[in-house]
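Changelog excerpt

This revision adds worked examples to the README so contributors can see how folded entries look when concatenated. The first example is reproduced verbatim below.
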Amino acid sequence: MEQLFSLAQTDILVPLLNRLEPSATPAWGTMNAQQMIEHLESTLLYSVSDQPVQVLVPPEKLPQMVEWLRTDKPLTRGFRNPLIMEGPNRHPDLQTAIQHMQNALAGFFRFYAENPAHQAIHIVFGTIGYEDWLRFHQKHFRHHFTQFGLLEA
């Protein structure tokens, strides 16, 4: 089976995170490094939740969107997620945020090991399960790691 979320592997993830500086300037967008990590944490937490959310894509287009999710195409730059709330950082510093994000990542895998049939709503892809969340998180991490120069485009 293909590796759907290779960026989650400790030997890949930790060296990338170790290169992230609090003062890192993004190639696009307005988030700083800590906000980006907190954003990844929030998305991981959301993918194991039962929180209702409005899907932004019309129901008839969801199959096409999920089909796209299953490709190797990257996420689009400049997408404004209406669920991202502007505001103060949740954690006192970047290192603390990274630790919380890594805990959320471990929690994601633990949750789905215990609840393999769980599905959560994504604002673009609708209700998706574990494998599609893996695909999304891989694209999402790659997108933001590219944004902050941790990966090449």
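The second example, added in the same revision:
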Amino acid sequence: MLITIPIQTPPGDALVNITGSVREAVRQTGIQSGLCALVVPHTTAAITLNSSLDPTTPDDIIADLRRLVPTRVDFKHQYDTPADAAGHIKAALIGHSVLIVIEHGELLLGGSQSVLFYEFDGPRERQVQVKVIAG
């Protein structure tokens, strides 16, 4: 079963904690042991695991990604906007999928780990595809 998590993102770059939604998707499947594959089907968005203990962590991550890949007008590809081109590069650096082990019906995340959806060209209506595989 494929479950889709809808996400409405704010303007610009953002990190959205979707851990609760992913946990609920896993519960819906009833699978107790296996793998949870998360896929972002967008070219200017990404997904990762990172800390959400300190609420300023996303600010630091976003700031440094902006420093590494600033929005600029000299990108060769600018189908939409310079922000769109920068978003493609940021998404390629972070990645479009995450695989998490499930045991006893729960995601095996570290104590400070959360599932974070990266938006690089908001505001947008986005989605994360969740596939839970027993095993």
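Reviewer comment on example two: Residues 33-134 form a domain with the Jelly Rolls fold (CATH 2.60.120.460). Helices lie at 19-29, 57-68, 82-94.
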